[in-house]
Amino acid sequence: MTATPGLGTPRPASPDLLRSVFRRHAAGVAVITASGARGPVGFTATSLTSVSAEPPVVSFGIGTGASSWPAISEAGHVGVHVLGEHQRELAATFARSGADRFGAPTRWRKGPEEVPVLDGVLAWLVCRVVARVHAGDHRIVLAEVVLGDHSGAGSPLLYHQGRFNGLRD
Q: Are 133 and 162 in contact (CB under 8 A)?
């Protein structure tokens, strides 16, 4: 491989290359929740995507080695929460392995379909899982929106360069 002027030296595909490229990609931050056999589960996701408006469908990715995967793999419904820039610590809690994600100071309640719904978020959805698609060491979950609320105040939380950030002009 040869260097392209102004572009650097191309590298062969690898997990490190993919991680390095996506550290440069700013993404919105969401927390996905579900009810599991042992209680509520949840994780921070930067892979939330709007898939379809009619019917309303979203998607997100989850690693099959994630502690939340066993519950998500069986859940009929999930909660999708769009975080605000004031929720950096909440995002970090749900991203941290071994954390008590639903203990204080996390504020939440049982919502429709027994889905854990987080308080104070910019917006939330309860979705019915319609498919889980194999994608390497992850699964892409497709979920149809059942109901939600978009009345939270504030600006979105972003993930960029391995850190949670607020939106800047």
A: no
Amino acid at position 131, single letter = A
Q: Is the peptide bond before 12 cis (omega within 30 degrees of 0)?
A: no
Per-residue pLDDT of the chain (169 residues; tens, 9 = 90+): 566 666 788 889 998 898 888 888 889 999 999 999 999 999 999 999 999 999 999 999 999 999 999 999 999 999 999 999 999 999 999 999 989 999 999 999 999 999 999 999 999 999 999 999 999 999 999 999 999 999 999 999 999 999 999 988 6
31: left (phi over 0), alpha (psi -120 to 50) or beta: beta
Ramachandran area for residue 98 (φ above 0: left; ψ -120 to 50: alpha; else beta): left
Q: Which two tokens stand for residue 17?
A: 């290359």
Q: C-alpha 144: how far from its chain's center?
A: 16
pTM attached to this predicted model: 0.91
CA distances from 35 to 40, 121, 145 (A): 4, 19, 17
DSSP alpha helix (H) spans, the chain:
15-23, 69-74, 88-95
